[in-house]
């Protein structure tokens, strides 16, 4: 009887499931650089809704005095962790939302 072959097979048999389990249960997920603030923000002039879904950042705006709407999809994120800026371009016009982590309930349009 070849004990070395049996020992090798036993070691291989026990270690393979552990390696596979570790690979499946320990995914590496990078922390997002931007927080993508979401929710509704409003004042006397604007009502802005921001959503992030399926890797797409969406802006819906209502200009209250004239009751006109705009919807923009696919912002470009810039800035840094403390002051984040999201920019949409529509027909050559830039729309920006600035947001600060230190003031999470306020956006600047």
Question: Can you tell me about this structure?
Answer:
This protein is an alpha+beta fold and 109 residues long. It has a domain at 39-108. It has 1 helix and 8 strands; from the N terminus they run H-E-E-E-E-E-E-E-E. The strands form 2 sheets. It has a 4-stranded antiparallel β-sheet with strand order 1-2-3-4, with no helix packed on it. The longest helix has 23 residues, at 3-25. The radius of gyration is 25 Å and the shape is globular.
Give me a quick take on this structure.
The protein is an alpha+beta fold. It is built from one helix and eight strands.
Strand order of the largest sheet: 1-2-3-4
Radius of gyration, whole Å: 25 Å
Class from helix and strand fractions: alpha+beta
Tally the beta strands: 8
Strand content: over 45%
* N-to-C order of helices and strands: HEEEEEEEE
Low-confidence runs: 7-31
Features:
109 residues, four-stranded antiparallel sheet, single chain, globular, alpha+beta
Secondary structure blueprint with pairings:
Layout: H1 3-25, E1 39-42, E2 46-53, E3 56-63, E4 68-73, E5 76-79, E6 83-90, E7 93-100, E8 103-108
Antiparallel strand pairs: 1-2, 2-3, 3-4, 5-6, 6-7, 7-8
């Amino acid at each position: 009887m070849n004990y070395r072959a049996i020992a090798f097979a036993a070691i291989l048999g026990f270690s393979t499931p552990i390696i596979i389990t570790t690979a499946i249960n320990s995914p590496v997920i990078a922390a997002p650089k931007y927080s993508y603030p979401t929710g509704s923000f409003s004042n006397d002039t604007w009502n802005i809704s921001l959503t992030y879904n399926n890797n797409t950042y969406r802006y819906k705006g209502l200009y209250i005095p004239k009751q006109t709407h705009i919807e923009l999809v696919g912002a470009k994120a810039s800035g840094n962790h403390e002051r984040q800026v999201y920019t949409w371009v529509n027909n050559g016009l830039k729309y920006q939302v600035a947001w600060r982590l230190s003031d999470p309930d306020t956006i600047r349009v």
